[in-house]
Amino acid sequence: MNPLYVLAALLPVAFVLGWWASRLVVARRAGVDVSTLSSDYFRGLNYLLNEEQDKAIEVFLKLAEYNRDTVETHLALGNLFRRRGEVDRAIRLHQHLVSRPGLSEAMKTVALLELGEDYMRSGLLDRAEALFADLVAMNSHAPSALRHLIAIYQHERDWHKAIEHARRLEVMTGDDETPMIAQFYCELAERARQHGARAEAREYLHQAFECQPECVRAFMITGRLHAEDGQHAEAIDALEAAIKADSAFTPDILPPLLNSYARAQQMDRAEAFLRNMMGRYHGVSPILALTNLYRQRDGERAAVDFLTAQLRQRPSVRGLMTLLDATMDKIEGEARENFLILRDLTRKLLEGQAMYRCNRCGFGAKAHHWQCPSCKSWSTIRPIHGVAGE
Ligand SMILES: [Zn+2]
């Protein structure tokens, strides 16, 4: 099992354990007999460790009842409810806690932060937004509240607000958020491009480069804008710069780049660039592009010779597929039947493959996403390298 999953599964346990340990210390200091408390806690923890969360909740609920003043008990419970997906129960519990008279300001803001997370989880984004905005205004748990607000604005695709709050977060924590802000500007540029607002798109790209001069995505959108305007020489400059900025995205950058080389009739430049790439990039895309280039320029024989020599050094299923397609016409008789089976199997092998993977959470995808749909990180989804991948 992935150690991360184990860790994630044990988080609520760790949360309750830590809380329980702190209660013991408090109880000892106060001279309270902890023996009766601890047997119940041990029972609850035992249930948690055995993943019998229903029974664990029962025990902790009893404890909360028994010890009405303990805010931490309620917080631990609310957290458990939310993690189990019982968001309505978590909301009721946290709302009750917030409205409790005599609650210290510090505890109230912790409960508000939890309540905001409950609202987010249940899709009540307006309520969550208002609550987190209040916490920021009170300067209470402001960095956490700001991060939640940025997550909400990303979900709503309100990139201007996302940028504004990311900047505030930078000022507050001193952390560098510019790679994320550059992505927000790229989102704005892409939207403007799709709506035909080309000057606006260029202005957003300028802002993205201000944040991150080597922003591969901004280079890619720049290339696309130039290509759409028929400026293929400029598109080539931008797309070559994109590969130099981050060659991991080569499989996505090469198709439009090859198109612009062809439109600008710069096939010599294409060959030189791809040849150069082969020395420092270990994926199969440049090899397949060169195979295609040689097929068009020098004929099928030259293309197959080049590809065969390359595949001996770098085994690749995608390369094999290209080779099978190129040689199919030459196979006759009984051997052809077997050949077709082999070709069919190879195609199925490729179809079932995830071509991209998030290097933060392991999410696999067939198409590229700039933001991981699973862990919401930016630029972490990359083409998979290896025999069956890039
Ligand atoms: Zn991810």
UniProtKB/TrEMBL annotation:
GO cellular component assignments: cytoplasmic side of plasma membrane
InterPro entries registered for this protein in UniProt: LapB, Rubredoxin_2, TPR-like_helical_dom_sf, TPR_rpt
One Pfam family cited in the UniProt record for this chain: TPR_16
Sequence ranges on the Cytoplasmic membrane side: 23-390
A molecular-function term among this protein's GO annotations: iron ion binding
Subcellular location, record wording: Cell inner membrane
Stretches assigned to the LapB rubredoxin metal binding domain: 356-383
Main location: membrane
Membrane topology note: Single-pass membrane protein
Keywords: Cell inner membrane, Cell membrane, Iron, Membrane, Metal-binding, Repeat, TPR repeat, Transmembrane, Transmembrane helix
GO biological process, one term: regulation of lipid biosynthetic process
Binding residues for Fe cation: 358, 361, 372, 375
Family: Belongs to the LapB family.
Task of the protein: Modulates cellular lipopolysaccharide (LPS) levels by regulating LpxC, which is involved in lipid A biosynthesis. May act by modulating the proteolytic activity of FtsH towards LpxC. May also coordinate assembly of proteins involved in LPS synthesis at the plasma membrane.
Protein name as annotated: Lipopolysaccharide assembly protein B
Organism encoding this protein: Rhodanobacter lindaniclasticus
Gene giving rise to this polypeptide: lapB
